[in-house]
DNA sequence: ACTACCATACTACCATACAAGTATGGTAGT
DNA sequence: ACTACCATACTTGTATGGTAGTATGGTAGT
């Protein structure tokens, strides 16, 4: 028998893990919310074991804070961590776009162009939900095209810490047209092997994602980790 | 009562987790080794529960591959992942050293100089084990000095995938004197705010860590993940 | 009214039992 | 000799009970 990796349809643990992660990132479980293994196991109608193991994973990703014998809470947003996540993402994405401008697989360039065309349609249709997904996919294709799939995965992990801030900011004020222009310039840079243009545009592109931490901390102080120490 | 985070001395789960992780990174548990929850729980004289939760964490870090109902093995080294880990580390460390050359906390600069002096001593004494730790600490201080502690943590995670290759390479052939010279130049760059020198030296410094994957895959094929797909 | 104490109801942690899928070796049948 | 089948001994996944530490609210004493 061949090794069919994905044999297990989907374990209870994964269901609980993904559901909790979604609720946390969407702020349906706001930072600071107390949750217990028992509570979650009752809600999902499963035993505490898969819930516990989900907690272990979420704690490792920094989304839960487990205090033995005291309780578990959805972790507060750490503004220092958010800033560093932005820092890491910027420099990794720039390094990758430079790499993409040097060499890029032809078939992924086609996917990139197709993605751009779909973006244009979405803007006309004002389908911002789809546009959000296309934005994600656009960057994903860039990583794939220069053999940086694992780097993409790492960035996804890092971005977890950016997402909750961005969610607070309310994404409604995005300038989708501007976003599209930048994406087009990135595509152009890759196609024409223009490393400087790629790096420059990506730097500006990353600047768009800066959520104003100071403002958010003032508006939602209960969601942020205070750091009186030092 | 104040919130004393580190109240729990150390959980069984953490003991098992750290022990297994050490053994894997030191290749005492070579890539491909099959291990079962029961086997480990017997060895540590604990129940399967903390062992399982250790497995969950190690699997998330990519050090274990769990196949439901079939078994668990120490993950094979993924040469593509190793290359990308090198890529990510290089660009993050360079971004950080540039930041350090712009602004650096005075007290950390003192620590850095003290570390350098200790390195010199270790070379004279040929205490390479200590030198290895000082090397790690040197980089750590740089991250701390420009407020990039979280970035350091992320790099530590990424480096996991580099460590096993480096371990195979046998670290004996390190040119410690050269290493020291580079460290000194990095220190100098930070002190004199010479961004270009910092970036340049760090780039060379990272190049030292390149383990020759081709050679290692030929020498230890059973430790490497083959990728016939594509 | 206020404080010190304690019973009680939590919490996460660990051990154990059961369930379900998989690999393996032996055996019966050809 | 070879093949198909099946019992058995594994594996990980899930459920549940018990333990120890912690927060809380009520009560007795001042």
From TrEMBL, chains A, B:
The keyword Transcription regulation applies. Coiled coil: none annotated. The keyword NADP does not apply. Pfam families: FCD (PF07729), GntR (PF00392). PANTHER family: HTH-TYPE TRANSCRIPTIONAL REPRESSOR RSPR, TRANSCRIPTIONAL REGULATOR, GNTR FAMILY. This is GntR family transcriptional regulator. Keywords: DNA-binding, Transcription, Transcription regulation. InterPro entries: GntR_C (IPR011711), TF_FadR/GntR_C (IPR008920), Tscrpt_reg_HTH_GntR (IPR000524), WH-like_DNA-bd_sf (IPR036388), WH_DNA-bd_sf (IPR036390). Residues 10-77 form the HTH gntR-type domain.
């Amino acid at each position: 028998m061949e090794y069919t990796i994905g044999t297990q349809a989907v374990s209870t643990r994964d269901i609980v893990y993904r559901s909790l992660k979604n609720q946390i990132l969407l702020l349906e479980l706001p930072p600071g919310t107390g949750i217990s293994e028992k509570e979650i196991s009752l809600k999902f109608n499963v035993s505490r074991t898969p819930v516990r193991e989900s907690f272990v994973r979420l704690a490792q990703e920094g989304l839960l804070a487990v205090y033995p014998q005291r309780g578990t809470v959805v972790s507060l947003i750490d503004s220092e961590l958010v800033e560093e996540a932005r820092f890491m993402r910027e420099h990794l994405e720039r390094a990758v776009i430079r790499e993409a401008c040097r060499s890029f697989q032809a078939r992924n360039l086609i996917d990139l162009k197709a993605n751009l065309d779909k973006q244009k349609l979405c803007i006309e249709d004002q389908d911002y939900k789809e546009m959000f997904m296309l934005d994600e996919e656009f960057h994903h294709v860039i990583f794939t095209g220069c053999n940086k799939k694992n780097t993409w995965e790492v960035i996804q992990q890092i971005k977890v810490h950016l997402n909750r801030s961005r969610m607070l900011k309310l994404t409604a004020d995005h300038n989708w047209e501007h976003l599209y222009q930048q994406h087009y310039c990135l595509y152009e840079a890759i196609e024409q092997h223009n490393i400087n243009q790629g790096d420059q545009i990506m730097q500006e592109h990353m600047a768009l994602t800066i959520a104003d931490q100071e403002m958010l901390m003032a508006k939602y102080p209960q969601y942020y980790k205070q750091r009186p120490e030092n």
